[in-house]
Amino acid sequence: MSTATAPVTTTPATRRLSTLDRWLPLWIGLAMVGGILIGRFIPGVSDLLAGLEVGGISIPIALGLLVMMYPVLAKVRYDRVAAVTGDKKLLKLAFPLDIQAAHTDAETQFGYQSRVTHTNTSWEAAKFETSMHRFVLVREQDFGVALVNDSIYGYDTSREVSDDAVTTTVRLSLLRAPRFPDPDTDHGHHEIEVGFVIGADAAVATAEGIRINALPSVVRGAREVEPLVSVQGDGIVVSAVKLADDGSGDVIVRVYEALGRRAVGELAVGFEHREVREVSLIEDDIDDARVGGELRLRPFEVRTLRIVR
Fold it and tell me: Are residues 56 and 118 in the same domain?
């Protein structure tokens, strides 16, 4: 039995472009020539354009750049992402950074983990993917960049060495689409929010990671409502506020130190209560429990407090 195969025809890439995109260099050249001619034969135009500036930014140039960039951005088919990664394909979002980072700081539960960026050893080279929670921080001694997200848990880092610089590239893993144990993993529509925070340190990265994952809800009422609890102290974060599991009506508050250093602060309670005391993570009483709202935490320490009503 023989089968006939239809010839496969492919359209050249240039023909798949629109007329505007295909001849973009020509349009740019004509615009430059036109600008030179207008400036030469109509001298008043330069003064007019100089007056159309806000904060040193030329409004006509800004509008022109927007017109040029919009078609490219609008043609990104985000709804096709799932089809691209439909079968065992890893989709990543890369950020080449002009930062010479010796290590990255990736958030874990109740803190962050530092990992080297080099591949000097075989076990470091084998770490092609590492875990993260809400942020990964890449920094030099006095400058850093944080990548925050609302729903992904993996990234990888590489260093590029040139004649005059060492740079760092961070790639966030967006979709993976494995076939096992669920052959339909990652299929369908996805919305992933990623933030690029310039000039960040661990405190800024932690705050922005929390913000992108827990946007404030606004409910309008007759008066302001004071928070149930609040903390003062650099690096101290409230992780959870809940009713006690024993049904007593007491309130459980969990705090932790997020920056990897000793912290001193205080817990303020916004409702009537009789006592604040330390308990275990499963809310059991412990020996020599600390009492009161004063907080003295060791690096990355997690503490659970019971507010007795």
Answer: no
